[in-house]
Amino acid sequence: MLKRARRILFFLVLVWLAASISFGQEKGKSLPLSLEDCILRAMKNNLTVSIEVLNPELADISVSQAQEKFMPSFSFGFDKRSNNEASYSWIDAAERVSSRRNDYSAQINQLIPTGGSFNVSLSSYRTDSNRNFQTINPRFGSTLTLNFNQPFLKNFGFAINRREIIVARNNLDISENQFKKVLLETIYTVEEAYWNLVSSIENLKVKKQSLELARDLLAKNQRAVEVGTLAPIEILSAQTEVATREADILQAEALVKNNEDRLRTIINLQAEEEKKYEEIIPLDQPKFEKKELSLEQALAIALENRPDLQAARISLKNEEINLSYSRNQLLPSLNLTASYWSPGVSGDRILYLDGDPLTRTVVGTIPGGGSQAIKDAFNFKYKNWSVGLTLDIPLNSFLSRAAYAQAKLNLEQAVLTVKNQEQQIFLEIKNATRAVQTNYQRVQAYRVARELAEKKLEAEEEKFKVGLSTPYFVLTYQRDLANARTSELVAIIDYSLSLANLDRALGTTLSTRNIKISEFFGSK
Predict the structure, then answer these.
(1) Using CA atoms, how far apart are residues 31 and 197, in angstroms rounded to an integer?
(2) Listed residue (198, 175, 190) closest to 46, CA to CA
């Protein structure tokens, strides 16, 4: 019985230990991410990108709204009226004059790109009255009318009348280029945070290696003091160096956490992932590959691909369109108007005795519906037309001239903006290409320095083994090697970031990483 209880207790202990280990592993679970993974997450979850992606969609809606200007419009009207008034003459009516009237109208309006307008309308009515001496009652009437209006000076031309659509489309292109700019900046921010995290992790590894070397030396010194081959004072210097390097590790660990938190924020990890993963493990290491690109080539690529420069150039086109429109508004108005209309009348024909309405003796009626009036209108039975020209010369054009002067200044400002943008791009390209070349040379120099530091430390350790050196010089060379490794690592990271910055300055980051704008919103 006692053995059975012990077995049960032993089994419960094992289960508790397994659960504890499993819980500890789950709590400390890490999230391995490549640079590509981080960029994709940022493109999907980054709040700045999510906000900016709405602007092209809004601009696309503005294009649709501007295009509605040339969509035909249809209108329909109906009016019903009943009038009753006293009769002032027995000839007109017996006691009261009553009349009823129904009016119907339908019209289609269409603006045309030259600035003119065209409309087709059909108006019909039906009247019924108790007045005497009428020959048609009820009476139906219909009129088909064609109207055309075309300006020849002010508001004339395709460009003038399609200005809102052209500007809206240009604004859509500007919005898309601004969105590309945000993507470029976001991707570079991700790369910067990712490589800084890699740098801080590798720096922590270097610090730990340096600490292990200091601890090994401290252990050797302690053994040497015990056997009497080394003065006890040497232990203090080794202990001091161990404590210093432990402090360096604490600082390096804090830097790792800071860079990790920054990367988490940029890629916007979801709350569930924040709780699930305690650390991010970068999978990629910086590559040291030389990139050859002349300043002239880089400048030509940037002038063609930079989204901010493209946006500035499109804004310049908008200002040119606005100036052309303002110049047109200074002209007098000369409008051609043309109308063509066809009326039709029908109704119930009233027959009087001897054909004389004055007898007021109705002997019969000949029915006639309203459809005949409509047929006469559409068959152009009664043709009517008119043509006219109207010239309107304003006596005061102060506001139009002020708008024209403002448009000229806006155009000049846009031209200067493009030139200034080109100068800034030239400066950025020069700095970016110089940084790539400089950081490449720095990596080579620090690599040589690190190799020499390793050889110096090896030589000093050999001298220490035979008693020709002291722990002080060994610790000094260890510190020099750690600094050399850190400097080489920083140089490699700086080189990788300088390449990323060069891609951003060239405006080629999206094409390099095969990222398409259509992946974020539908094709416009």
Answers:
(1) 14
(2) 190
